[in-house]
Amino acid sequence: MTTIDGLLERRRIVFCVGSGGVGKTTTAAALAVESARRGRKTAVLTVDPAPRLKDALGLDTLDARPRRVPLGVGVHLDAVLLDVRRTFDEVVRGLAATPEQARAVLENRLYQNLSGTLAGTAEYTAVEIVFRLAEEGGYDLLVVDTPPARHVVDFLDAPRRLLALLDSRAFAILKDPTVILPASGSRLAHLVLSAVLRGLERFTGLELVREVGDFVRAIEALTGALRARVTAADALLRADGTALVLVTAPEPRLVDENTRLTRALAGLGLPVGGIIVNRMLPRALFAGGTPPPPDGLAPALVARLRRAHAELATLAARQEAVLAPLVEGTAAPVLAEVPLLPGDLGSLADLEAIARHLFPAPAAAPDSAGRVGR
Amino acid sequence: MSNWTSSKLTLRASGSYDRDVPARLPLAAQRLVIVTGKGGVGKSAVTAALARAVAGAGRRVLAVEVTRGGLGALLGAGTLGPAPTVVAPRLQATALEPEEALGDFVQGILRFRMLARRLLESTSFQVLAAAAPGLPELLVLHRLLGWVEERRLGRRVYDLVVVDAPASGHSLPLLAAPRTLGTLTRFGPVAQVLARIQALLTDPSRTLVCLVTTPEELAVRETIELHRELAGPLGLPVAPPIVNALPPRRFGRRDEAALARLEATGGAHAYLVAARYQLERRRRALGQLTALRRALHEPAVSLPFLFAGPEAPGGVARLAADLAAAAGLTA
């Protein structure tokens, strides 16, 4: 991936990843708007849109059905709310051969706890929605907004982690935790392990060992179907048509966060293909140093104007200083810079304004098929 | 918290350019302050500033970050380790890793260091430990309780433990852990520890939860939700919200009119663009401040946007001075 146009025209799935508060959701929506305008059938899957963006995208309910967002004559975009808090229950129900089989899993107390916390089942449910839309939605491009940095690794790694859990050896261990110790023959090791497990049980009030065993036996019935499904979802994340874009902002805290995130993602075999830097102050505004003031203003107002300008110049210098390490740590090209726009963005007009910064070269004029360019 | 309401009037009456009259933060006698909020709102800077403000007023403070981040740098101390280290007079700081807390717990049971290490390194054990509901959260809280209660020679080691807690999404399970676990464990030594933690967390004379936000729509919305959850069902003492990075007021009403006239005559001078930008940011931020006050029925404590960033020299000190004023602390 070397250009941002290539993203929209040659990829099938684009994941926007990055820390909280850098404008991932808005960026994902702006990319999707532009893709739809270029005539590709596009859907944006978004995690936690601000109310204004939610309204703009017509996402009023909490289900995973695509909503159609009209963008002009003959052009529309589909929007899907990706609810990462959805339970794994739906996946379990879909895979179970009988209602009893599903119930045995769903009613297990440990499952109820696990499905929220362990092995990324919640995240997997979100990946499952992406997978389903990619397989069945008939879209040219899916733009996926992801949960903030730390969770995105869980999110993208969910299929693999779930597979690892379904691995029969891990199951064997959960059924009989004493297999954990390498020297499992040793009497001492067994004593030690049961002491620790007793400690854990006492600490949590759960009959942990027994309940894990119950859970494993209940879910084992589903593993064949689940494994096939999860493997397919994982393959989709690694396909050539899938790209990861890191969305970031010129803030010092993000240098470390981005470096850690890109490393973790690379560790999963999911390299970041490019960076979009949000919230840059326009360089041109400060290029000339301190300009002479406009004519005919009261000296007091000129002083205040000079101060306001100087403050923003300070902020711009801070951003500039942070930009190089920000990009260096991630070893991916900067695809676009989007200026800091005041306040909260969210309307379709805002998204189009952002798209103009993402894609500075003008697209084609309206063509005979009625597609709208800019 | 009804005594905050009186400051609403002064907030509106404030006519000078830079002062937003702060509400008071009850920090003088607190033993545990938990700072949380949406990711990226400046929790660490506010934690560092709170710690400095309280230490500056003569109390012994331990600043804790849960999982390593930028707190050490903001306190001028580099990366923080698992053991508290002195970073300034009366101010110590440390980083708390849930995994290390689990290690301590297992070693406490095992006594054999090598076996404990082997066990902790095993993935399957990690799976088991993760399956135990609220265990990591409980271990963190247990460690915090230990610091709050720690005494040496009959004297408290720390007057105040201030915690740079994980972002909202993770703070809720953390703060709800004693309650969640309490329903599972009713008897025994663990139940007693839980009861002690819960008593500390819900005691308004000892604990204060500070929610930090920026004056932006998403962060404000999350703050309102979190405030309701923590003060409501969880019954925790929650401070007036701290609004960080409030764009300063730079222009009066007459200035604005003069600028509008210049813009109308086609002026695109760099000064005008910068002024418009600052005005617009301030206007939107005040809108969010109002939304926050209406939703929570109390005014926020606001901290200024620092153009050079909180990490620049004097940044944390500036925030600390404002917080000390809001808390009525004197050096």
Describe the structure in your own words.
The complex is a heterodimer of chains A (374) and B (331). By secondary structure, chain A is α/β, with parallel strands linked by helices. In chain A, 53% of the residues lie in helices and 13% in strands. Chain A contains 15 helices and 8 strands. In chain A, helix 7 (121-136) crosses helix 8 (149-166), helix 7 (121-136) packs across helix 12 and helix 13 runs parallel beside helix 14 (299-328). The two termini of chain A are 24 Å apart. The model of chain A is unreliable at 362-374 (pLDDT under 50). In chain B, helix 2 packs across helix 13 (315-327) and helix 4 crosses helix 7 (135-149). In chain B, the strands form 2 sheets. In chain B, strands 3-4-2-7-1-8-9-10 form an 8-stranded mixed beta sheet, with helices on both faces. Chain B has a two-stranded antiparallel ribbon with strand order 5-6. Chain B contains 13 helices and 10 strands. Chain B has helices at residues 7-13, 43-56, 71-74, 98-110, 113-121, 123-131, 135-149, 168-182, 188-201, 217-231, 253-264, 270-296, 315-327, and strands at residues 32-37, 61-66, 85-88, 91-96, 151-152, 155-156, 160-164, 207-213, 242-246, 301-304. With 331 residues, chain B is of the alpha/beta class. Chain B is 50% helix and 14% strand.
Whole-number mean pLDDT of chain B: 82
Unreliable sequence segments of chain A? 362-374
What's the total number of strands of chain B?
10
The chain pair with the largest interface is:
A-B, 68 and 71 residues
**Largest pleated sheet of chain A:** 8 strands, mixed
Spatial sequence of strands, sheet with the most strands of chain A: 3-4-2-5-1-6-7-8
Total number of domains of chain A: 1
Assembly level: heterodimer
State the name of the first-level CATH class of chain A.
Answer: Alpha Beta
Strand content bin of chain A: 5-15%
CATH topology (level 3) name of chain A: Rossmann fold
Q: What is the string of SSEs of chain B from the N terminus onward?
A: HEHEHEEHHHHEEEHHEHEHHEH
User: What is the CATH topology assignment of chain B?
Assistant: Rossmann fold
Corresponding CATH superfamily of chain B: P-loop containing nucleotide triphosphate hydrolases
**Whole-number radius of gyration of chain B?**
22 Å
